[in-house]
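seq:
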Amino acid sequence: MNASAYSVRVRCVSARTADEYIAWLRDGHVQEVVDCGAVAAAIVRLDPDATAALGFGVEVRYTFPDRAAMEAYLRDHAPRLRAIGTARWGSVPGIAFERSTGAVVETYVPTRR
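struct:
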């Protein structure tokens, strides 16, 4: 069975908002998702995009052991955690969210250095 990935991409109007969002993730949100079934998570600060209105981005990439674990998270835990996120970030101007899911086809680990 393949692992499954769940990503949340956030675009912000300012670097400060992106920094605040990263701090919020570090202060417990990512750990909550891990506690609810993810086996790994990575917070990625996306390179700024000067051509976009919301040019500062953050992406959180969660890995679940399989599709069933990810679907259980999305069904049983994500609504509560999204509500917390909406309460904190929903009224912040200049922020947009995008979510995606997929199967992890392959994970590469260095075999030599």
